[in-house]
Amino acid sequence: MGIRIGHRSIWVTGVVGCLLGACAVAGGSAGGVGAAATTSPPAAHAASVDTSPADGKSFAEALLARAPRPSGSVATARLTAPLLVLPDGQGTVDVHQDYLLKSKLDLDAFIASHRPSGALVGGPNTGSGTGSTQSTTYEFSLPLANRHVSFESLDYTVGFTSANVEELRVDAEVDWAAIQTVEMPTSGVVTLTGYGRTSDMTRSSDPTTVTLTKAQAQKLRERISSLSNAVAGGCMEDSTLFIVTVAPGAGQRTTWTATGDVCPGDLYVVSGTRHVTLVDTSCPLRSLVVSLLPKGKALATRKALKTCGPRF
């Protein structure tokens, strides 16, 4: 499995590094994105913003304003003991608000009871560094609110001052871009290829290729045209998940391709000299691709496509 980088995925204490949700540092418990997301019931309220502000900062500010807050939290302009926050990925917009807490916060319980509907939970992760106090962080990775957005999250970080006063920092992170709509051609021959085996070290293998009907191609075109633009993030390891090709006729040269990858879950479209990257973790797209592949074939692709929605 590939390891996504580009957002707050690495926590450091001294010279020890930890991947978000994969391990624990400085006393944190091993969490795991999948475990947290499946064991915590969705909260009735949603933090995601369903409007389309004019820019990423406006969107992030609206998201932060809707973020659930613990009772007894008091906004403050500056924390006494700064909490460790690692740099965001290139292009990621981050806005935050600091709070002082009147009573000790059970962060685990707060996160479990306030998870927005459809969100993934990362953490807990702990860390400390020069000039900052030891802190614990959880992250809500939220369903994408609109096509301007390719990543959005709310991060909750807590720590204590030397006077044992508990502090809280809430961050809203957003990857936002102008919309680029990709229209897949449906004339000619449209094929879909999935794989029986995928590997981070070698090329995907055991391919299964199907030629789509006109109706199937039109449905795939609709799903692709609804995808968000990908802005930031990448992976240390990756492999091909599926490929869509379009050619004018049988045996003729391909003029349009879309390649889906395992990590971070992007769709790389090439049409002539135009190259566009989209987020392919959309549930409608992934369910359609699975339905178009023959049952019992392309098992690695089918298995990977069972995961959809928010991503880290």
Explain the overall architecture:
This protein has 312 residues and is of the alpha+beta class. It starts with a strand and ends in an 8-residue tail after the last helix. The protein has 6 helices and 16 strands. The chain is elongated and about 75 Å long. 17% of the residues lie in helices and 35% in strands.
Please give the order of strands in the largest beta sheet.
4-5-9-8-7-6
**Order of secondary-structure elements:** EEEHHEEHEEEEEEHEEEEEHH
Largest sheet: 6 strands, antiparallel
- Tell me, briefly, the overall form: elongated
What's the end-to-end separation, in Å?
Answer: 13 Å
* Class by SSE composition: alpha+beta
**What is the typical, i.e. mean, pLDDT?**
82
Kindly list the characteristics that best describe this protein.
312 residues, alpha+beta, six-stranded antiparallel β-sheet, 6 helices, 16 strands, 17% helix, disordered N terminus
Secondary structure: elements and pairs:
Blueprint: E1 4-5, E2 10-13, E3 16-19, H1 33-39, H2 56-65, E4 73-76, E5 93-101, H3 107-113, E6 120-129, E7 132-141, E8 149-160, E9 166-176, E10 189-197, E11 205-211, H4 214-225, E12 234-235, E13 240-247, E14 256-261, E15 266-271, E16 274-279, H5 283-292, H6 299-304
Summed up:
Helices cover 17% and strands 35% of the residues.
